[in-house]
UniProtKB/TrEMBL annotation:
Origin species: Demequina lignilytica
Name of the protein this chain belongs to: Gfo/Idh/MocA family oxidoreductase
Domain Gfo/Idh/MocA-like oxidoreductase N-terminal: from-to ranges: 5-120
The family this protein is said to belong to: Belongs to the Gfo/Idh/MocA family.
TM segment ranges: none
Length: 327
């Protein structure tokens, strides 16, 4: 294709490999470079995806001339590289969390706005098939008025320097998902524990109230295992029915009040794409590139990352004060 987009990836971690996989395989993109800190690791990753390694972002920008850059760095190292790229006038697709500080989030958004840049964030849970179907069912009124919703998610720890890494790095998906399905969260009341790693809040439980009047809960943990069945569960209960999302991509069940039968979606025998968590990112990329080519705003703008962070900081304040906090 003569109009292939030139895309570069900043990062060489495990999930950054998914970025490289997608853009190296798409027929409408060229993976023109991978940027990393370690020369040997970066060279190996670039060789695996038949592209050019760089250890300097500016050198990559000057030599590879990407149309779009994706950023997948350690969770607490997002701000400075992202701000630098925005300052260079580069359209971005970044990984969550956006950052850990609201002030830093505002600085990034302000720079992107000043530059008029495409600025997307990969909250890819939205693109799972069960989630897309759940959203459609809720919007169509199949559940009636939503009364309560629950998110539960957890596995092994991904410890950083922040005492709230579980909340901001992992449960950002839950905050975004609950608002995606049920509308804005208006207040939170939180409990947290650091019993397994003093000083780091590895498990939390939050009571929620939505702007609609519905209530909900969010339970997130680093004291569990991704090997367990039902690592992830979302329940949305309305006046006319209920839906359950299991393990993000595994199953959607929709029930109607008073009926013993239920409707179930599961990926069919040949539908490996729909049952694979990593491919939720492929789906997001498809939508993001369509918007980028059309000169439209991203389907998941970086503002969604800022919004999830705002709710997370309200949860932290609630835990610290012992009070319900308005968002």
């Amino acid at each position: 294709m003569d109009d292939r987009l030139r895309v570069a990836v900043v990062g060489t971690g495990a999930w950054a490999a998914q970025h490289a996989r997608i853009f190296s395989r798409r027929r409408d993109t060229d993976l023109v470079g991978i940027v990393g800190r370690d020369p040997d690791r970066t060279a190996a990753r670039a060789e695996a995806f038949d592209t050019t390694p760089f250890t300097d972002v500016d050198a990559m920008l000057d030599e590879a001339r990407p149309d779009l850059v994706t950023v997948c760095l350690p969770n607490e190292a997002h701000f400075a590289p992202t701000l630098h790229l925005l300052g260079r006038g580069v359209p971005l697709l970044v990984e969550k969390p956006l950052v850990f500080s609201l002030e830093e989030a505002d600085a990034l958004l302000a720079e992107a706005e000043a530059q008029g840049l495409f600025f997307a964030i990969n909250l890819n849970h939205r693109y799972a098939e069960p989630v897309a179907r759940a959203k459609a069912a809720i919007d169509a009124g199949e559940l009636g008025e939503v009364v309560f919703a629950t998110w539960r998610f957890g596995g092994e720890a991904n410890i950083g320097t922040s005492p709230h890494a579980n909340l901001i790095e992992t449960q950002v998906h839950g905050i975004d998902m609950l608002e995606h399905l049920c509308g804005p969260i208006r207040s939170v009341a939180a409990q947290m524990t650091d019993m397994t790693l003093p000083g780091t809040f590895t498990t939390l439980a939050v009571a929620l109230r939505f702007a609609s009047g519905a209530v909900g809960s969010l339970v997130g943990t680093y004291d569990s295992s991704y090997a367990y069945p039902d690592t992830h569960l979302v329940e949305v209960n309305g006046t006319r029915g209920r839906l359950l999302i299991e393990d993000t991509v595994k199953r959607l069940t929709v029930s109607r009040a008073g009926e013993a039968t239920r409707s179930v979606w599961e990926a069919g025998y040949f539908d490996d794409e729909a049952r694979t968590f990593e491919y939720t990112f492929d789906r997001h990329v498809e939508a993001a590139l369509a918007a980028f080519r059309a000169g439209e705003a991203p389907p998941v703008h970086a503002r969604a990352g800022r919004r999830a962070l705002e709710v997370a900081h309200a949860i932290i304040r609630s835990h610290e004060t012992g009070e319900r906090v308005e968002v």
